[in-house]
Amino acid sequence: MDKMWSGRFSASASSLLDEFNASIMYDRKLYKEDIEGSLAHAAMLAKQGILTTEELIQITDGLNQITKEIEEDKFEWNISDEDLHMGIEKRLTSLIGDAGKKLHTARSRNDQVAVDFRRYVLKRNVEIVNGLKLLMSEILVVANQHTETLIPGMTHLQHAQPTNFGFHLGAYLAMFKRDIARFEDSYKRNNISPLGCAALAGTPHNIDRDMSAEILGFDSVSVNCLDTVSDRDFALEILFNISTMMMHISRLSEELVMWSSYEFGFVELSDEYSTGSSIMPQKKNPDVPELLRGKTGRVYGSLMGLLTVMKGLPLAYNKDTQEDKEGVFDAVETAQISLEILKEAIKTMEVKGHNMEAACSVGHLAATDLADYLVEKCDIPFREAHFITGKAVAKSEELKIDLSDIEHKYLQEIDSRINEDVLEFLVLRNSMNARTSSGGTSTIRTKEQLEHFKTFLEG
Ligand code: ARG
Questions:
Q1: What is the pLDDT of residues 116-159, one digit of tens each?
Q2: What is the pLDDT of residue 86?
Q3: Which of 24, 116, 257, 418 has its CB 3.0 to 4.6 Å from that of 33, i.e. a possible disulfide?
Q4: Low-confidence spans in the chain with pLDDT less than 50
């Protein structure tokens, strides 16, 4: 009968309940945030005259001692203590006696866990943003080396128009930049202190919520206690932000897997970040991007899981909410290692520019340029130009050549308005460089875009 809440009970909890009810095996990850929260709360209680200076000193020393014990792996985590909050408070009382029993004045585990978990999420937000910036810097290095390397731009996975590899990577830089904005936006919205909301309705004690909020680095205090103790939007936001980031990582991974195949041969992942087969001696498998693609699915699962946990909960705190942590921990750790390994894989991969360029010579990538030529030079309406170009593509197919290699005489046969100057338009590099509209693929515009990302990363 040693539970903190055992006053109204006459029989002990079953060990089965202990096992089912406890979160201490995983929420101990929050020990730092929990102890920092308690230190801030105690300092506030002392300033308000609710604790004496002597009690504050005892509590502070006791909590520092507990931090040491945890970090030296000497702390005893007991499943019967249920969660880290009670485990730490119990140890504190055993270390310092009665002062330890006063720490929970004007506080509940409901605002305590909200503080701990929120601060954990906020800290991880910052780390993930840093990881994203490092990944972007590495992509930027490769992109800058390939602003003139032609690669087939595709839609429907079919050859569409010639682009350059720097431009292609620039698309991922744009995605990761948006991800950063999303994490930063969530940080600002959620940097609000739950401490002092107590169980659900606030407290009659004369507390100073602003003071504890300030100590803990929050921008302000939450507005409505009933909402605050059951709000897990901050956790859902990081799960959504990670999911979206992983979706981007997964799309890039999918391309890396394809590009590593013999059929594409656009990149070769380094030996350090590839694996072999247990049976086929020749194999070099792109396990890293494949796993990144796979892990994305697991992260989505955590987002769906928590959305579903939350959807039917009446106000305020319900024990269901305890299910918020494991999915977030897992998603955060997945995000961090994913950013790191993708960065290394990109840094060490070989880009086979000649294969990218060779791939451009099939699929009639210059077809749109012929249509644009007919519009610009021959004053033909685009719809008609499209039709005439279709004929030129059919002729090229018949000749078993790429449109970019067609001789002028065949084009003349199709439409007499086509002059010899058309051939310039069909040169693939010219086609890529012709797209000079803002955000376009021309080398000049690509360099501008990469400059934009560089400035963003320096800012
Ligand atoms: N371990 C709990 C959780 O993670 C802490 C809050 C418990 N509060 C309560 N009233 N039982 O949600």
A1: 999 999 999 999 999 999 999 999 999 999 999 999 999 999 99
A2: 98
A3: 116
A4: none
Atom from ligand 1 closest to the CA of residue 27: 4
Determine the distance separating the centroid of ligand 1 and the alpha carbon of 86, expressed in angstroms. 10
Catalytic one of 12, 261, 277, 354: 277
Q: What is the pLDDT of residues 444-455, one digit of tens each?
A: 999 999 999 999
Q: Are 212 and 195 in contact (CB under 8 A)?
A: yes
The whole-angstrom distance between residue 187's C-alpha and the CA centroid of its chain comes to: 13
CA distance 7 to 1: 9
Instruction: Please list every protein residue whose CB sits less than 6 Å from any atom of ligand 1.
Output: 23, 27, 83, 109-110, 113, 317, 319, 321-322
CB atoms closer than 10 angstroms to residue 281: 7
The structure's pTM equals: 0.96
Beta bridge partners of 79: none
**How much is the pLDDT for 26?**
98
CB 238 within 8 A of CB 80: no
Pairing of strands 150-155, 158-164: antiparallel
How many angstroms is it from 110 CA to the middle of ligand 1?
6
Q: Which two tokens stand for residue 234?
A: 């901050």
Identify the residue whose C-alpha is closest to ligand 1 atom 3: 322
